[in-house]
Amino acid sequence: MTEKLRYQHVRFRTYSPSSVLDVLMGDGPAQISGGFGGWQVIKRPKRISLTEWQGVDPTTQTIPVMFDGWTDERSVEPEIARLEAMSRASPGELEPPIVRIAGPIHHPELDWVISEIQHGDTIRRRHDGRRVRQASSVMLMHYIEDTQLTAAKRHRGRDDLTARFGHPALHRTVIVRRGDTLPKIAARELGKASRWREIATLNHIRDPKHLKIGQKLKMPRPQMGEVDSKVQAVR
Predict the structure, then answer these.
(1) Do the domain assignments include residue 161?
(2) What are residue 11's DSSP bridge partners?
(3) What are the pLDDT tens digits along the chain (235 aa)?
(4) How far is CA 154 from the centre of its chain?
(5) Residue 51 belongs to some domain of the structure
(6) 60 touches 33 (CB < 8 A)
(7) Does 111 map to a domain?
(8) Is 150 inside any structural domain?
(9) pTM for this predicted structure
(10) Domain that holds residue 122
């Protein structure tokens, strides 16, 4: 059974390795930033500029905390060490653990990683030098899983199906027509004009305006939803 979180406390929890730390909230509220915007304007001569989303940095959150053992002269060094351990990779692990947080903070439903811990001026130490009160700030970053490898595995599975049912598992080729541009080809062949950069990258085209009539262009492989619908159709 999970222990109830005390009033005005923040809970940091990791599952691999398993660790839990409850610490008093410090001065001021948790501050959140990032995760918004990401739009850029693309100029077009004599036309209204385009807006294109380039992506954004993950959301970050800064939580002030207070390690407090002052009333009973209890050392808070073990608690500080536990928090710092949550920001480092354990022996045998390639990266630090994912952290879940609870309390008077933002987005407790998200996965986080600790990006930085800052310890302020020590408020009090015992006669042996150990800290009994320490104000700190914990900086966290929204953990975004790398899905590229997973997507690649799924694509391999879809390619096997498309080859089995007679659909192209390799890149198909189209011929450039009079008046064609990369966005126009992307809209016609891929259903989205915004995918023209994929065509440019695949065909090593530096100048998207420099196309020749009759030129052969390789098309990107169908996206997962497109392949699924085609495979279902032949079934």
Answers:
(1) no
(2) 22, 102
(3) 456 777 899 999 998 889 999 999 999 999 999 988 889 999 988 899 999 888 889 999 999 999 999 999 999 999 999 999 999 998 888 889 999 999 999 999 999 999 999 999 878 999 999 999 999 999 999 998 765 444 544 444 444 444 443 444 456 889 998 888 898 998 898 888 888 989 998 898 887 777 888 888 989 876 645 544 443 443 4
(4) 20
(5) yes
(6) yes
(7) yes
(8) no
(9) 0.60
(10) 9-142
